[in-house]
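Lay summary. Proteins are chains of building blocks that fold into shapes, and those shapes determine what they do. In this project we predict the shape from the chain. Here is one chain we studied, written as its sequence of building blocks.
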Amino acid sequence: MARLPIPGSDDGTWGDVLNDFLSQEHNSDGTHNGVNAGSLKTTGASVVISGADAPTTGQVLKATSATVASWQTLSSVGTPEVLIAATNTAQDIKDVADYTCDGVNDEVQINAAITSLVTLGGRVVLSYGTFTVSDEILMKTGVEISGQGPGTHVKASGFSAGKAMFRLADVNVHATGIYDMLIDGNFSAGGAVAGIDYDNTGGVFTGGAISTNSDCAHRLQRLIVRNTGSAATPRYGFRNIGSFASNFVSDIRFQQCRNGVYVDSPDSFYSNLEISSADGVGFTIAGANNRIVNSKAYFNATDGFLITAGRNTLTGCEAQDNGRWGLNLTAGDCNIAGFMADSNQKNDNSGGGVLIASSGNNLIGLDIFDRAPSGHTFPQTRGVSFSGTRTNNVVIGRVHVPSGTNYVEGITSGASNLIEIVTKQGSTAQSLTTTRINAQDTKPTGALFQNFDRQLAGNTAIAPTSGTMRLVSIWLPAGTLVTSATFCAGTTAMSGGTHGWAALYDSSLALVGSQSANDTGITWAANAAKTFTFGSTYTTTYTGLYYVGLLMVASTMPTMCGQTIGIGISGMAPAMGGNSTTSLTTTAPNPAAAISGGTAGMIYCYVG
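And here is the predicted shape, written in a compact code that computers can read:
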């Protein structure tokens, strides 16, 4: 091995040792032999490389095997990454950063870094520390911006009206990402500024180096967004408008944003969002076919969740201590699973747990309660409320609110709803009832409830006995105002009629309300409906089984429309219907006689 001579130890041989050492890089005539040509030296914080194998501008050293590395251009290395240092971050980070901010108008450096990556896309990395921005950070296609968690603090300062801290550079921008940082609107000091405000209205997302077809495909993850807007000018923590499809928004806390989150885009995914203290609605979903999972809206001034577009799904979400409704559902074909409404209605006494102002929805696993009603100015007194005529809704869950009359409201306003609510009356834990509305999709106009689907009623030649009251069972919910009962004759008409009336009975066969007037000259044509109006209206006091009694006295009794049911089935307790008190003419008995065994014929009836 070549070495330098050692003084005092190489007497007589030092010349040979020195020549051997020099010959490693020199020819015998003293010229350099080209081996190990070039040099590397440091000058302060810079490294200077010279020689034939020195890199060109923009190249990086890339390992091509386990033992060999070569200089490569960035395009052959992969997606570039640009580091921006905050003014108050560590010096060693500033020493290697591509951009260093000074704490004033830091959006200038951030936007420059974004622009530098726009050809192929890439990532802008923000260091720990505070970035003070006074104008918008403009996202561009294929560029992501990432911090180091909440320690990366992007803070607004002196924004002009109508601005947002993050916005798309134009409507065609797609495939962007914002990750791992605290976005702080800084309230009045920041100006009336929004947090993230994206508009892809009319955008085109194909062509160029990055194509996402018809979807803009943005990502927002692991953020804290707070203090946006001002008391005078509410601004959203996050808003998107336009064709904002196929996006993922997750793990974000929106806190004290004067408006919360507004989504009018379709086909996107939202998970693990926390939205609190908005001056209006917490989470507005105005776009169709979105998925919202494991999210909570609380302490918002009006609704926790407002859904105004169809085909949306909420799973495992909660609304707590909001000012009006926990969930305000104004669109159809939505699926709500495992939704909790806890102590809403705090600012608006017309609110409550869940408002259904639409048809064709599926709400399964509701849990609606007010945990401390005595301490609330407006306790959550309503469980599930229906607004307007609503059909084809399925609602299953549990309600425990202070007012027992408001567990389910407006359920008689629509047909074809299935509602199964387990309720707890006041503080009495054992006082449980089940409210169920069976399918009423075929009931006639003006009918509140029918005893069975009229499609099943035929001309079955059911002929009641003259002078014997026939009882017909019907299910009615509590709070139903009953004014009349209607039956339909079959193919045989009545003749020689001298008495006819109807009366309403409860499940114990006690007369409730007053019977209809006795029609002493009653006539009834074949295949015709006849309505008997009760002498006074009656509001049902419980949910469950009632009976309508029908009495006729005639020389020829009409046959009645209905259906044939096996006697063994119709006679099961409680009886579905049959003959009761005999030898009647003018007055309904109170109570009625017990039904004398089940009969095979079930007469069709509805109440109005």
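What the prediction tells us: The CA atoms of residues 567 and 600 lie 5 Å apart.
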